[in-house]
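User: Batch of two.

Assistant: Item 1 of 2:
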Amino acid sequence: MNDCAAQPSAFGAWWLAIRPKTLTVAVVPVVLGHVLAWAQAGSLHWPVALVALLAALLIQIGTNLHNDVADFERGADPPERLGPPRATAMGWLPAAAVRRGAWVAFALAFNLGIYLAYQGGWPIAAIGLASLLAGWAYTGGSRPIAYTPLGELFVLLFFGLAAVGGSYYLQNLSISPTALLAGAMLGLFAAAVITVNNARDRETDSRVGKRTLAVVLGRRATAWIYGAEMLLPFALLPWLAALAGRGWSMALPLLALPPALLLLKRFGGALAGPVFNELLARTARLQFIFGILLSLALVA
C-alpha cells in the first residue's frame, strides 16, 4: 500500500513523477527507426536523430506527469492501489505544479517538433501533433484513452508504428514496409507494458470506473494477450529479415527470448499484488533489450 511510502526530496518526488523506468519505452523506437534508416541509406543526419530522441523523451515525460495529476483528480489512485506511489496522490507535489510540469514538457517537445517538421514536412508535423494530442488524451478529456479498452492499441500505434516509422521517415523522407513491421514488433512489447500495468490495477480500476482491457476481459484472457504481445515479435523476425534483406544476423534478438518466456511464466503464476510492479519494470526492460538487439542486427 502506498500510504507507507517515505517522503522523498523535492527532486526525488519529481523523479518519481516522470516514471524513469518507462522512458525507455519512448526512446528505443526512435533509436530503432534511425538505425534502420542508417542501415538502408548508409548515412545518418545526427542533429535530426538527437532532436527526435529528445522530443520523444519530452512527450513521454509530459504524458507521465499529466497522468499523475489526472488520475489523482479522477480518484483513480486510491490508497489501496498496488502500483508505485504517485507524487500527486501522496501529496509530495501540488497538483498545479505537476500539471505545469506536464505542459512545460509538451511545450518543449512542440518547439523541437517545429525543427523536425521543417526537416520532414507535413507527415512529421502530423505525427508530432498527433503524438502530443494523444499524450494529453491518454488521461485527459471526458473519455481518456487509459480508461477504455484501447490503451494497448494506442501504445502499439504511437510507441511502435508512429515512432519507428516517423523516425525512419525523418532520415529518408520515405516510408517502407520494413520500418512499419519493425515498429509493430516494438510496439507489441510497449503494449505488453500497459497490459501488465492494467492487470495489476484491475480490481481498483474496476471500482473507479476504468474499463481497461484487463477489466473487460478478465485475468485469464489478459494473460493470453500478454503472451501474444511478448511472443509475436520473435515470430515476426523471419519476415523482417526477408524485408530488410538480412541474413542470420537477424537471429540476434532471439537472445531476448529466454527472459521473455520467464516473464510469461511469472505473469501466469503471479497473484494480484506488488509483484506486478517488478513484472512491469522487467517488461519495459525487455522491450529496450529487444530493440537494441534488433538495431545491432540491422547494422551487423
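Item 2 of 2:
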Amino acid sequence: MHLRDFYYDLPDDLVAQRPLPDRGASRLLALDPAGEVCRDLLFADLPRLLRPGDLLVFNNTRVMRARLFGRKDTGGRVEILIERVLDARAALAQVRASKSPKPGCAIDLDGGARLIVGQRENDLYRLGLIESNFADLMSEQGHIPLPPYIQRPDDASDEARYQTVYARHSGAVAAPTAGLHFDEVMLDRLREMGVGFAEVTLHVGAGTFQPVRVVDIDRHEMHAEWIDVNDEVCRAVRSTRARGGRVVAVGTTSVRSLESAAADGELKPFRGDSRLFIRPGYRFRVVDAMITNFHLPESTLLMLVSAFAGYRLVMDAYRHAVDARYRFFSYGDAMFLSRSD
C-alpha cells in the first residue's frame, strides 16, 4: 500500500487543543466489523462493549517533563526534547535550533544548568549535564512535552491531564492517549463487572510524531521504543484465553507491546527495544479488541488500526468521525475496535 492510501481531510478546528473538564466525558465511536456499523456512544458506555472475563491491558508509562529551553554559547535559542535518559548525567535528545549544534557546544538552560552537546546519533544528540542529574533537572525546569499539533504552551493543568491515572514508570515523551479517558470511577465499574487488568510498559518516543517519508510504506523504518512485558502479563493473557475472554488493548502502545512480545509466534516476557511496524497484512497474535484515539493522516498509528480492524472500515469510520465532529488526537475522543479476521 502507499502513503496516500492513509490520507483523510481533517478540519483544523477538530484537533482538540485542551482536554474536556472530565476525563470520562469523551465520545466513543464503536466499530462492528461484522455488520460494518459505526455506533456513536459516550466513553461512559464502555462497559456495554466489554464482558466479564475480558482482560484490559494498560500501558503504565509516565510522561517525563522532557521539554527544556535555553541558549547556545553563540546566543541562539534552543529547544530540547529529552528522548531517553541514559544515566544521571547523560541523555539522548532532539535539539531544535536555527543552526544544528556542533559537538562540544554548550547550552545554557533558562533555569541555569549547563549542557554539553556530544556526538549525533541518527536524529538525536547525546547531551552531557555538568552538574546535578537529569531527573532533578527535568523535575525543576522541564515542561510537559505537548504534541506539535497542540498549538499552545503547556500549563499547570497538563501536568495532571496529559498523564493517565495509573501512570507508574517515568520514561515517555508522549502520553498513551487512549488511557487518558479512564478515571477511577470507570476503573472501579469495570473491576466490579469482572473485567481483568494487566499492565505493560512502553515508553512512547518522539518518533511517534515523525511523518512517514516514503511513498511505499513497506520501505518505512520504524523508530525504536522501549518495552517491558513481564511474565505476570503473559500469565494473565493465557488465563483470559482459557476462560474464553478477550484481550483488549488500551491504546496502540499496548498493542505494539503485546505483539512485540509474541513476535516469534508465542507470547513470552520481553524487555528491550522494539521496531515493530504494524500495517495492513500483519497477522495479530494476541490482541482481540482495542481502545484508541483518532490518529494523524498518513501516520503509522493509522496504519496499525487499519491493519487491526480492516482498512476500508477504518477509513470510512474516520470520514464519519469528521462529519460527526468528533474531537481528534491526544486530547480528543476515542474508538473501540474489534479485530478483523
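The CA atoms of residues 55 and 240 lie 6 Å apart.
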